[in-house]
Write a structure and sequence with these properties.
Layout: H1 2-19, E1 22-23, E2 27-29, E3 52-54, E4 63-65, H2 78-81, E5 93-96, E6 108-113, E7 115-117, E8 126-133, E9 141-149, E10 152-153, E11 157-162, E12 170-176, E13 184-192, E14 201-209, E15 216-223, E16 231-241, E17 250-256, E18 259-260, E19 264-266, E20 278-289, E21 293-301, E22 315-321, E23 325-331, H3 341-351, E24 353-361, E25 364-366, E26 370-372, E27 384-387, E28 394-398, E29 401-407, E30 412-415, E31 418-421, E32 425-433, E33 436-437, E34 440-442, E35 445-448, E36 456-463, E37 477-478, E38 481-483, E39 486-488, E40 492-497, E41 504-505, E42 508-510, E43 513-515, E44 520-528, E45 531-533, E46 536-538, E47 546-554, E48 557-559, E49 562-566, E50 571-576, E51 586-589, E52 592-595, E53 601-612, E54 615-619, E55 626-631, E56 634-639, E57 642-646, E58 649-653, E59 664-666, E60 669-672, E61 678-680, E62 683-685, H4 688-694, E63 703-704, E64 710-713, E65 762-769, E66 777-787, E67 793-802, E68 805-806, E69 810-816, E70 821-832, E71 837-845, E72 859-865, E73 868-874, H5 884-894, E74 896-904, E75 907-909, ...
Parallel strand pairs: 1-7, 23-24, 24-27, 25-28, 26-29, 27-30, 28-31, 29-32, 30-34, 31-35, 32-36, 33-37, 34-38, 35-39, 36-40, 38-42, 39-43, 40-44, 41-44, 42-45, 43-46, 44-47, 45-48, 46-49, 47-50, 48-51, 49-52, 50-53, 51-53, 52-54, 53-55, 53-56, 54-57, 55-58, 56-59, 57-60, 58-61, 60-63, 73-74, 74-77, ...
Antiparallel strand pairs: 2-14, 3-6, 4-5, 5-14, 6-13, 7-13, 8-12, 8-14, 9-10, 9-11, 9-13, 15-16, 16-20, 17-18, 17-19, 17-21, 21-22, 61-62, 65-66, 66-70, 67-68, 67-69, 67-71, 71-72, 111-112, 114-115, 116-117, 117-120, 118-119, 118-121, 121-122, 123-125, 125-128, 126-127, 126-129, 129-145, 130-144, 131-139, 132-138, 132-141, ...
């Protein structure tokens, strides 16, 4: 065999050698001729012009590229991505791409040269190449060489290995190959990927040369260095002598920025430059260097006057910059100073700056990142600004890493840019690292992923030491300012990481808006002098997301921040000023924070801090939580704060705030809706008084009250007088969160908001009726009104809307004191319909007749609905509820008031149904959600639960499929919060059933927390889960109660549970529990349990079917144990089998009946039994079957006593050494009855004989039949069959009657061989399951295939009940091979069960005895392929002769390539006898007597033998096999075929494979599974390994898989089974030769066919004829044509297959591009009226060229002169079209007119003009020449503005600069004397107007009605004097004489009394108006005689 393989290898090597091209020396390759393309880890790039090849045996490929690589910062980037030679951005190089998916560490790419022949070259030889290795995780690179002798390649030998990166620069390496001269060899360059995508390496310029006699070159440009000084500088180089002769002369050529310079004549030193020597600093000329990039190239020629034939080493280049940048530049796009960000980055990092520098990025969208490494020259006096101008128009976008990278950059500002990074991992807007200091990010918009969950390192602005790890600590960034930015999405908005050892300093985040971050708005660690000020954080997406999370801080400030509805912590501060004594106090001031699920503010280990003026509010929390949480505070001053909590403590402290630190706590407002206000260390305080009493130094001025927030918890601004002026002025905070000055009143306000309450401010504070669920019918609309103002509320208008429609306002009068509320105000009515949704919105206006300027508290809006009743639809268009969200909302809002059904329309709904408490539900008012059919109606979710019942009662969810995906915290149905009397019925619930280690993935769950299925509480009562199919998940059903309060009445009935990972049903803390009629199968974990019950009372666990359970079948702990039950527990009619543990387990179970159960377990050990009990009392155990396979049938941890219960009428069986352990162990039932006489008097011992072991425990045998106790009263069995069937009930769960006559056709045995035979024996296995022995049984077999027929045989003998036997039925002829279908039956007279009489049909394939070949034809060639007919398991060799002595084949396999038909046209086909093997490895760890396991054929294999890992010694073996998967419980050979036995086999010991001398020939077809049992029947143990899960792949190769299975004890099938155990050993397989006959296979010589469609064709036209030639018989075109000529009319690639009559074929392909010629039409010739230009349009074709007769080249041509114009259009492929037209211009007629008017003017054009205008009107076609006449109107219009504004009594005309005359409308529009000003103030009620005269036009306004100018009449004021008038503060009234007992009253113009002064005496009286608003007031003087006089006074 080895000789044959060697021959094939030599043939392969010979073919390889002949195929190789060769390299001619000297050799130089710069790659410029090769095309770019290919991907490293995709398709191999095949090179067409270079002498290098990508290996096909590596992982990756080298590919051609130019420009930069796709990743940054890695790969070539210099000069915009230049190569090494010619050093331009378009230059090409080879590189290794390491981005995803090519970034697996350690993958290899091998580039191999063609053969290099070195015979006859000079005595020196070198290989030289250039490389570029730039990237932080650069992998290794190797240069290798190998000899190729006589066509056979040797091993690769290393020349060099490069490790680590070498920077962003091209370098060269050379190697001395002198030792290889005279050899033929190859060179290999191997690239190895690094740890990530920062390892793009590149290579270029391969040179192989000898040292020439004369060879020189420039090795470097020495000067000037970059950045070069401005102005003229010397250019100096280093000259190197590469030649053998001394270098005495050479020409140094050079260019500067691409311009050729004067050559320099180099002469060399003294006698010349020696070989391999260099002279540096050679000045070759000068150049003028200006700011910007420069390029210098220098090269030598004519060394020693001789032509240099080795030019590869002649040239050096230098790219640098001339002077640092300063001033302003542009970037981005054509014409910019820097066309892209890469060039900008390069210049900045290379050239630096030396003064303030601004880079203005042009507007545009740039799909690139800006990478800033250290910019030389930046300082506080030389700053760099990158300015996008406007973030709305300028965007940098990337899909990986950061849009902006600031790496060591300082004093740089990035502003006015949009930064996008769309990835879900390692994506940043800005990333700072490496001491990036004094940088600013300002006015930027940063957009990140805001929809994906579980983002990783996706951050708006981040500072860390590693861009792939946002927690990378280090000196990352200091004195950074992030300001005025909007950051949307991402995992974090801002994350700055410092270092524990190097705390970062001075970072500032100010006035930013952070939206939709997943986990954190702002996160900081290890920071000093941190400022987080004025930021707004909203829309946090994760339920555990925090607003601001900072820790390990010194001297910090967190102030003025607005955090809205943080799901978790609002502001978290930990270890603030705690690590060291700070220089200054920390500030936590003016923050406004709300949290919806946790503490709004959290302070832990915070020292020396001022906590002033914060408003902190939490909702949705309970327990030991508080809106403000503090711990370990030291010297913290906490004043002027509001702490508000909805549900828990306003403030929660782990310590008492006094003993731990000297803290100040005062002037705070505390409020909670929960039961207690404060938890101050060890003491809980119900109210503030309690706290003040307990800690008298705290809170002396604090208050307990409910602050009135302007928008509830959505807006924490204040407005109520009660909250005003309550703070401590000494805190010294001068502004509030909004920037308003403090204080606004006498004292500062408490909280973040400083406010001044209004005098007049009211609002509708509640809508009292109607509210959901509303009474159907007519309802009053009732509201509450609150007075929020400082004055008494006397009146207000209540306006309101119903469903958006305005209703009649309600005028409300009252006398409501400040802060009071008036309820029960009826403002109208509405009619409510059942299920009808309504919206009531009500608000107040004009409190006390004054405009209300505080509108935020005016309005209350409620949406409600009438209770549902009857039948509704949900889901889709036209349904009553289009989706589940609307259904959920209406149900929770409206409720129901009668039985209600919601029918969900068929469909797939990717949404959840979330039901909270549904008002109105009761036992007489139920809700049903009905999907109609679970097969057609699905709710699907990957979040939480498909159905949530949160406090829901009396609800049924039925006939739905509930589909949940995910591996954590997902449920089909979740019940919580006392959800009671609910039913889940006839639903299909599907969950993940493949993933291991699921967490909280449950079909139906009840728990207190949807994120924790074990959370105890009042979760669910009287729940019924029935008739459901639940697949997958961690648990099928999980009911969790509470230790202190068991949940009651829950039931799981008639459900099917499949493929759960850990538990079928799991219950805890339950009372009155029912688990009945459930079927549980397919549990996936080796420790999974079917039914697991803990702490249950009065339970019923009955009629459940759980077979092949990996661990416990039914587990009950603490059953009826913790209290005296009112009824007994019931465990009845269960059929349970376990493959490795107790099938029924009782621990601490009392007062329970255990009747009619079938309990079977495959276990061993001293503490195991099929039924296990411990600490039991008063059990009644009767009529059960307890079956122990290998272990005890029953095991008691205690010595069984009569007190423990009744044990009788049970069937016990064990095939282990002892029957039971009842304390003590008893060998059999007789011994047990003797030892414990109180038990088992009527029990029996014996094998009940199950239908199929642990797979089906229904009973066949007579032992348990008719021997039960009739008194237990169980009337049906597990299948619902009535008990008893016979005279007495049976033991066990199955009521049955054994059959007298029942023959079973078990199946066919596999044939002994798959080789064809003239007498292949067919055998049938039969079994007797009748009580009567079978002595004669006819067997019939039908077969069909290559031959067909029927065989008959009759079994004779004596086959007892349960026994098996094999019947030889006959033989068939399979000599010619083929596939046979075989079936049959047995015929027993009187058979009582015919269903088992038919033999399962099988198909069997046979390999022909003689190998079958297929001849071939040569088709004009001298080679052809001949074939063998393939058969499963057959292998073939090809021989050159039929001579048996010729044993060396010339080929193998199904196909053979005849190398030369002329030389030999006939070869001989024979069967091969190859073999192969697969070993598992030998980890050991356990062991016993053998393994049951499966083998899966990936290809068809022939299993020929086994080896096994054994202990040292001697053993006997058996090997068995069967088609299909093994049955883990198998303890007999039924259905198995023996492969043989081996006795006394020496075993080799652990760690090696002992080959078992049992030969076999078992074919496992591809895709099929066969079971094998390799068994030790006696002797030393085999060594196997504990497994994970039966069916897992344990070992595999390309041919087969060995699966995890079970172990067996020594002894064969009857031994104990252990699960899961893995076979350790070897499977031998291969092909067995059916004969040694050889078959001749020949090649017939035929001429063949050919086809040539010609070259690819491009044409302008509509069709093309393709001709395949006439030398073929058949044609098959890719367009389905079958003729010689195919006419094609569309562009495309066309294939044709031509063939002749003997099957010779030829194929050709042609590419056809049919270009339809363009069309152009300019229209007809035109006469043009007027002089307007005419646009001629040649039509839009893209791309297209246009050429007009005017030489214009645009699509359109504007012409304004007579003439003929033509155009030629040419499309992108050169097709043309042309057209022309003639234009003639004609003149228009004209007419001008002018007009001056007052008011509107109507003109002939039909328009009315109200403004000055000049307008043309065209009379179409009215000119003499038929052209238009144009009339021009010049119009001067005066419009008089008569509008008037009225303020109380004063009317003001809006017109300015005109004449005014006010008139009295009530007096015939009579002018009012002297009323000619713009304003007029009326002194009496009436109607007034104003007459306006403007530009000679006079017009009067409408009349204005004034009422209520005074509540008093005006009297005679002629005797009194009032001065000063107007006045600023006070006015004096002179009565004209001395008066007494006078009353002086001041009114507003609308009659409101401002002050009243009684008993005024004297002639003069002073009235103070100091605090009145500016305006007009009336002073009323009432004498004691009753005379009233009124005067007016104006206050300014």
């Amino acid at each position: 065999m080895m000789k044959q393989k060697l021959t094939l290898l030599l043939l392969m090597v010979f073919g390889w050698s002949l195929a190789q091209a060769q390299i001619t020396l000297p050799y130089s390759e710069n790659l410029e001729t090769e095309a770019t393309g290919g991907t490293s880890c995709g398709n191999q790039q095949v090179f067409t012009t270079i002498n290098w090849t990508n290996s096909t045996t590596d992982n990756l490929d080298w590919v051609i590229d130019n420009g930069g690589t796709g990743s940054s910062p890695t790969g070539p980037t210099a000069n915009g991505g230049a190569d090494f030679n010619p050093g331009t951005s378009g230059g090409k190089y080879l590189y290794l791409e390491t981005s995803n998916p090519c970034n697996t560490v350690g993958q290899e790419a091998d580039l191999e040269s063609d053969l290099i022949y070195t015979t006859g070259i000079e005595p020196n030889l070198y290989f030289e190449y250039a490389y570029h290795r730039f990237g932080a995780s650069m992998g290794d690179m190797q240069v290798n060489i190998r000899d190729v002798n006589a066509g056979v390649p040797g091993a690769w030998m290393g020349l060099d290995t490069l490790v680590g990166e070498s920077g962003d620069i091209w370098l060269q390496s050379s190697f001395d190959l002198a030792s290889y001269i005279g050899d033929t060899f190859q060179i290999q360059i191997k690239g190895i990927t690094g740890t990530d995508f920062y390892s793009d390496m590149a290579i270029d310029d391969f040179n192989i040369f000898s040292i020439l006699a004369n060879d020189a070159g420039i090795t470097s440009i020495d000067g000037p260095t970059s950045p070069a000084p401005g102005g003229v500088n010397n250019v100096a180089v280093s000259v190197n002598n590469f030649g053998a002769n001394n270098l005495t002369s050479a020409t140094v050529n050079w260019d500067f920025n691409g311009v050729l310079q004067t050559p320099f004549a180099y002469t060399g030193p003294g006698a010349g430059l020696p070989t391999n020597s260099s002279e540096g600093g050679v000045v070759i000329g000068t150049a003028n260097f200006v700011t910007g990039i420069f390029n210098i190239t220098a090269w030598t020629s004519l060394p020693n006057g001789i032509i240099d034939s080795a030019m590869a080493n002649d040239t050096a280049r230098l790219t640098g910059c001339g002077g640092a940048l300063r001033g302003s530049y542009t970037a981005g796009g054509v014409g910019a100073d820097f066309p892209d960000m890469a060039s900008l980055s390069f210049v900045l990092s290379t050239c630096g700056i030396d003064s303030h520098t601004v880079i203005n990025v042009n507007p545009g969208f740039y799909s690139e990142r800006l990478v800033l490494t250290t910019v030389p020259g930046t300082a506080d006096t030389a700053t760099l600004t990158i300015d996008g101008g406007n973030a709305a128009t300028t965007t940098l976008s990337t899909n990986s890493l950061a849009a902006v990278i600031i790496d060591g950059t300082t004093y740089t500002t990035i502003k006015n840019l949009t930064l996008e990074s769309s990835a879900a991992t390692d994506a940043y807007g800005v990333h700072l690292t490496n001491a990036a200091n004094f940088n600013t990010i300002d006015f930027c918009i940063i957009n990140l992923n805001d929809s994906t969950t579980n983002l990783n390192d996706v951050i708006g602005v981040s500072a860390s030491s590693d861009i792939l790890n946002d927690f990378g600590e280090g000196d990352n960034a200091n004195h950074t300012t992030v300001s005025n930015c909007t950051i949307t999405g991402g995992e974090y908005g801002i994350h700055f990481e410092g270092a524990f050892a190097t705390i970062n300093v001075g970072n500032i985040f100010i006035n930013n808006t952070l939206i939709n971050n997943e986990d954190y708005g702002i996160y900081c660690d290890d920071q000093d002098s941190l400022s987080v000020i004025g930021n707004t954080i909203t829309g946090l997406r994760n339920i555990n997301a925090d607003g601001i999370y900072v820790f390990d801080l010194e001297m910090f400030e967190v102030s003025g921040n607005l955090v809205v509805d943080a799901p978790d912590y609002g502001i978290w501060i930990d270890d603030g000023n705690a690590a060291a004594t700070p220089v200054g106090r920390a500030k936590i001031i003016n923050n406004m924070v709300t949290s919806t699920g946790d503490r709004a503010m959290y302070l832990n280990d915070v020292h020396e801090a001022d906590v002033f003026h914060n408003t902190v509010a939490s909702s949705g929390i309970s327990g030991t939580n508080g809106a403000m949480y503090v711990n370990d505070l030291l010297d913290v001053d906490m004043r002027n704060n509001i702490f508000y909590c909805d549900g828990a403590f306003a403030l929660y402290s782990l310590d008492d705030l006094i003993s731990v630190g000297a803290n100040t706590v005062d002037y705070n407002i505390y409020y909670t809706t929960g039961p207690n206000l404060i938890d101050a260390g060890p003491t809980v305080h119900a109210d503030l008084v309690s706290w003040q009493t307990a800690q008298v130094t705290l809170n002396m001025n604090s208050l307990e009250m409910q602050p009135l927030f302007l928008g509830g918890l959505s807006d924490l601004h204040l407005f109520a007088p009660a909250d005003n002026n309550l703070g401590d002025n000494t805190a010294g905070v001068l502004v509030d969160i909004d920037g308003d000055a403090r204080p606004a009143g006498a004292n500062v306000d408490i909280g973040a908001d400083e406010f001044t309450p209004l005098q007049d401010d009211a609002g509708v504070s509640a809508v009292e009726n109607p509210i959901s669920p509303a009474t159907v019918g007519l309802n009053d609309v009732i509201v509450s009104v609150s007075n929020f103002g400082a004055d008494t509320l006397d009146a207000a208008t209540i306006e309101w809307e119903l469903d958006g429609i305005a209703q009649t306002p309600y005028a409300h009068t009252d006398s409501l004191l400040p802060g009071d509320t008036r309820t029960g105000i009826i403002i109208g009515s509405t009619t409510v319909t059942g299920g009808g949704v309504f919206t009531v919105k009500a608000w107040t206006v004009m409190p006390n007749g004054v405009a209300d300027i505080q509108n935020a508290n005016d309005t209350t809006e409620i949406t409600g609905c009438g209770a549902l009743r009857g039948v509704y639809t949900a889901g889709g268009v036209g349904a009553d509820f289009p989706d589940m969200a609307s259904l959920s909302f209406v149900l929770s809002t409206c409720g129901i008031d009668s039985h209600t059904v919601i029918n969900i329309n068929p469909g797939f709904y990717a949404e959840r149904l979330v039901l909270e408490s549904v008002p109105g539900t009761a036992d007489t008012i139920t809700l049903t959600i009905n999907g109609g059919s679970a097969a057609t109606t699905t709710l699907a979710t990957d979040l939480l639960s498909a159905v949530s019942l949160d406090g829901t009662n009396y609800t049924t969810v039925k006939n739905l499929t509930l589909e949940v995906t995910g591996t954590n915290d997902v449920y089909g149905v979740h019940l919580t919060n006392f959800a009671s009397f609910n039913t889940i019925d006839s639903c299909i619930i599907t969950m993940d059933d493949t993933t291991t280690f699921l967490n909280d993935v449950v079909g139906v769950s009840s728990s207190d927390d949807i994120l924790d299925d074990n959370a105890e509480g009042d979760n669910a009562y009287w729940t019924t889960v029935s008739n459901c199919t639940i697949t997958g998940g961690e648990y099928g059903i999980h009911f969790e109660g509470a230790t202190a309060n068991r949940n009651v009445g829950n039931s799981a009935i008639n459900n099917v549970l499949m493929n759960q990972e850990d538990y079928g049903i799991y219950v805890d803390d339950q009372d009155s529990l029912t688990i009945v009629g459930n079927t549980i199968s397919g549990l996936r974990n080796g420790n999974a349990d079917a039914i697991y019950c803990f702490d249950i009372m009065m339970f019923n666990i009955s009629e459940n079917l759980a077979l092949e359970v990996p661990d416990y079948g039914i587990y009950v702990a603490d059953g009826n144990f913790d209290a005296v039950p009112t009824s007994r527990g019931q465990v009845n009619n269960n059929m349970v089998t376990s493959t490795s543990d107790r099938a029924l387990y009782f621990d601490d179970v009392n007062e329970t009946d255990v009747f009619h159960n079938t309990i079977a377990a495959s276990i061993t050990g001293t503490f195991n039994g099929a039924f296990y009990t411990n600490d039991i009392v008063d059990l009644d155990v009767r009529n059960n079957i307890f079956y122990g396979d290998g272990g005890f049938a029953y095991y008691s941890a205690d010595a069984l006593t009569a007190v423990m219960g009744v044990f009788d009428y049970n069937n016990y069986y064990s095939n282990g050494p002892n029957l039971v352990d009842a304390g003590p162990v008893y060998l059999d039932l007789t011994a047990w009855q003797a030892g414990q006489a109180f038990a088992n008097a009527n029990s029996v011992e014996g094998d009940p004989i199950f239908v199929n072991g642990l797979v089906d425990a229904h009973v066949l045998g007579p032992v348990a039949n008719d021997v039960g106790d009739m008194t237990v009263g169980i009337l049906v069995d597990v299948d619902g069959d009535v008990r008893p069937e016979g005279p007495i009930v049976d033991m066990g769960a199955d009521e049955f009657t054994p059959k007298l006559l029942d023959a079973v056709a078990v199946g066919f045995t596999a044939p002994a061989t798959v080789c064809g035979d003239s007498n292949t024996v067919l055998r049938v296995v039969i079994r007797n399951l009748g009580l009567t022995d079978i002595t004669s049984l006819p067997v019939t077999v039908n077969y069909a295939g290559p031959s067909s027929g029927t065989l008959n045989a009759t079994y004779t003998g004596s086959l007892a009940f349960g026994a098996f036997d094999t019947v030889v039925v006959g033989t068939i002829n399979t000599y010619e091979g083929g596939t046979f279908a075989v079936d049959g039956f047995v015929s027993l007279v009187g058979d009582e069960d015919l269903s088992s009489d038919t033999l399962p049909a099988v198909t069997v394939s046979f390999t022909p005895f003689v190998p079958q070949g297929m001849n071939a034809v040569s088709c004009g060639l001298d080679s052809a392929i001949i074939n063998a007919v393939p058969y499963p398991g057959a292998g073939y060799f090809w021989y050159a002769s039929n001579d048996p002595l010729d044993t060396i084949p010339v080929g193998s396999g199904n196909d053979f390539l005849v190398p030369s038909v002329v030389a030999q046209d006939t070869y001989y086909l024979g069967y091969a006898n190859d073999s192969d093997s697969l070993s598992t490895g030998f980890p050991g760890g356990n062991g016993f007597g053998g393994n049951l396991f499966d083998i899966v054929g990936l290809s068809t294999i022939n299993v020929t033998g086994f080896g096994m890992n054994m202990e040292t010694g001697t053993s006997d073996f058996e090997i068995w096999y069967r088609p299909g998967s093994y049955v883990g419980f198998d303890n007999n050979a039924t259905g198995w075929t023996s492969a043989g036995t081996a006795i006394g086999v020496p075993t080799a010991g652990a760690g090696v494979s002992t080959q078992i001398p049992i030969a076999m020939d078992v074919v496992v077809p591809a895709g099929q599974t066969y079971a094998f049992f390799v068994s030790v029947t006696s002797g030393t143990n085999n060594i196997y390994t504990n497994g994970v899960s039966v069916g897992n792949v344990w070992a595999a190769n390309a041919d087969l898989e060995i699966l995890e299975g079970s172990g067996k004890a020594v002894g064969g099938f009857g031994a104990t089974t252990f699960t899961v155990r893995n076979f350790n050993g070897t499977v031998y397989y291969g092909a067995t030769a059916c004969s040694d006959i050889r078959t001749a296979v020949s090649v017939a010589t035929t001429p063949g066919v050919s086809v040539d469609l010609g070259n690819d064709t491009v044409l302008c036209g509509t069709s093309l004829d393709l001709d395949a030639g006439s030398n073929a018989d058949f044609y098959a075109w890719s367009n389905s044509d079958t003729t010689q000529v195919s006419t094609v009319t569309a562009s495309g690639t066309y294939d044709v297959l031509v063939s002749d009559s003997v099957g010779c074929e030829a194929v050709d392909t042609i590419g056809v591009v049919i270009n339809t010629p363009p069309t152009v039409s300019l229209g007809g010739d035109q006469d043009i009226c007027g002089t307007d230009a005419v646009t001629l349009d040649a039509g839009a074709l893209t791309p297209v060229d246009y050429l007009w007769s005017t030489t214009d080249t645009a699509q359109t041509l504007d012409v304004s002169a007579d003439g003929t114009y033509s155009v030629v259009v040419t499309d992108s492929v050169g097709c043309e079209a042309t057209d022309s037209m003639t234009l003639t211009y004609l003149p228009d007629g004209t007419l001008d007119t002018a007009a001056t008017v007052c008011g509107a003017y109507a003109w002939i054009d039909g328009n009315t003009y109200v403004n000055d205008t000049v307008v043309d009107y065209i009379l179409v076609g009215q000119a003499a020449n038929g052209c238009d006449s144009v009339i021009t109107l010049d119009l001067d219009v005066t419009i008089v503005d008569t509008s008037v504004n009225t303020t109380v009594a004063t009317m003001t005309a809006n017109a300015v600069g005109v004449l005014y005359q006010w008139v009295d409308c009530d007096n015939g529009n009579a002018p009012i004397a002297g009323a000619t000003a713009q304003s007029y103030t009326a002194t009496a009620n009436g109607n007034y107007a104003v007459e306006i005269t403007d530009n000679g036009c006079t017009q009067m306004s409408g009349c204005i009605n004034l009422t209520g100018l005074s509540i008093r009449a005006f009297g005679d004021a002629s005797l009194m004097n009032l001065y000063p008038n107007p006045t600023e503060n006070a006015v004096i009234i002179d009565f004209g004489s001395v008066m007494s007992e006078t009353i002086v009253t001041v009114y507003t113009v609308d009659g409101r009394v401002m002050q009243a002064n009684e008993n005024v005496d004297g002639q003069m009286f002073k009235i103070s108006l100091e605090n009145y608003p500016a305006g007009m007031y009336f002073v009323e003087v009432t004498s004691k005689e009753g005379t009233v006089t009124t005067l007016k006074v104006s206050k300014f």
